Amino acid sequence: MRVSVDADVCYGSGECAFRAPAVFGFADGYGFVLPGRAENGTDAGTGRDGEPGQDAGSGRDGESVDDELLRDIAERCPSQAIRIDGKRVTD
Ligand code: SF4
Fold first, then answer.
1. pLDDT tens digit string along 21-41?
2. How far is the CA of 52 from the centre of ligand 1 (A)?
3. Is the shortest distance between the CB of 13 and ligand 1 below 6 Å?
């Protein structure tokens, strides 16, 4: 599962970073996916700690964010800026 934020759509509620700080950051009024957190538990592309194929967000610092939570965060993003596998998530 791959997660991303469309910065052109995000209006900066900060909710994603609040709910899953292991995956999302917030800076300059916009949410973003932390480096190395976009793809299934890999850490900055090095594979350190995380195993590809596990939940996005598992890996660095041992924190785990499961796919269901990420999908829920994407559904609740007030601007629907969060993409899962490149697609907008709606409930
Ligand atoms: S929850 Fe959505 S609108 Fe809010 S900061 Fe994150 S991506 Fe942007």
1. 999 999 999 999 999 898 854
2. 25
3. yes
Could you tell me the distance, in angstroms and rounded to a whole number, from the CA of residue 15 to the centre of ligand 1?
6
At residue 61, the 3 state secondary structure works out as helix
- Which residues of the chain have a pLDDT value below 50? 41-55, 57-60, 62
Whole-prediction pTM: 0.77
Domain enclosing residue 33, as ranges? 3-88
Residue 43 phi, psi dihedral angles, 5° rounding = -115, 105
Number of structural domains found in the chain: 1
The CATH code of the domain that includes 62 is: 3.30.70.20
**What residues form DSSP beta bridges with 4?**
83
- Alpha carbon distance, N-terminus to C-terminus of the chain: 17
Predicted local distance difference test score (pLDDT) of residue 44: 39
At residue 74, what is the residue type? A
Would you say the CB of residue 78 lies under 6 angstroms from ligand 1?
yes
